[in-house]
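Usage example:
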Amino acid sequence: MDIKMILGILLASIFSKNFALIERLGTGAVLENERSSRRSLTLGLGTTLVMVLSTLITWPLNKYVLEKVPYMQTMAFVLVVLIVVEIIHLIAKNILDTYCKANFVKFAINGAVLGLCIENSHADLVTALVTSAAMGIGFMLTMTVYAKIKNTLIDEEAVPPTFRGLPIDLLTAGMMVLALLALNFKF
Amino acid sequence: MKKGTKTSYLLKGTPSALLVLGAGFVMASSHDIRAALGMGAAVLVALLLSSIVVSALHKVIPAYVKLPAYLLIITGFVSLISMFMQAHFPEIVDMLGVHLAALAVSAVIYRDAEEVADHNGEATSIKTAIVTGIFFTVVMVACALIREIVGNATLWGKPIAFMQEYKISTIAGVFGGYLVLAIVMAIINKITKLHHHLDEEEEN
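Running the assembly step on the lines above writes:
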């Protein structure tokens, strides 16, 4: 794997295959996020670490154990993600709980992590690990940019009452999707 | 909070708080009415079964293992549903892709188990699960109808001849998911507010 390919995976993860906005995995975690940029970045880094470590365990588990029992894949992957998140939480409890209003464990166990582990099981290990790190960075950036737009640019008073709350959040995220898809010329 | 008093966001009249948790799978499965119905049925059955088991077992599960225990109960049911659908409706499983498996860690089902089934008996849990499941199915089907007819000019996968020239393919795409759900949610907000307003007037 050369630098060109790594750069390609990184760009795809942030833009054209953005997990939270384009693939719609872990969208709830992003839409609910109202934290400051620093808190969002720290939480995003925690989630990236969960993604990479989970892939590091689920990839060989899938290749050497789950091939004979594919129906156990979701159950085994959820268990691995759960253990990884608990270990990271145990090691960095103080930092993560300061930055996460809700429990970090509940935040980090989301569709994006599980979906990534499942999708990565079809690739080779190096590609899977690079993809995990890149998807984690994409997730972190999306969360941070979305929270920044939501907290600073949107004036709730200027929004019609029925569109306040989730509808305007969805439209904001939709505008971000349009911007990302414009780079791919595919909307 | 007293035991047995927690109800779902939906029964408290705040559907947007619930819908934000499941926005991802609602948008991902509302591009086609068959996928929306499949996902709706999967959410309803997963909610119902996990609520029954959690409300029956919550007293014997120690507090410090509740999160892993509840997640594994939900994952077990989602895996069962996934296998059933793979056997009987493989084309719907193909349409839903990884989103069907991702239901296992969906905050909608987990919060229902944690906030409702963990604090109430079977009857309340079943009622909440059915209401929540039907709500998600209706929202997904409503979005899918708009997106399939306007975006693809098809219904149930079959082309609508007179719509072919007027279809707006953006509606069927990723952005369309956000746009249509926002509009549907705004309509729900309007109805909910109107309903609350009428209730207040009746009380006065």
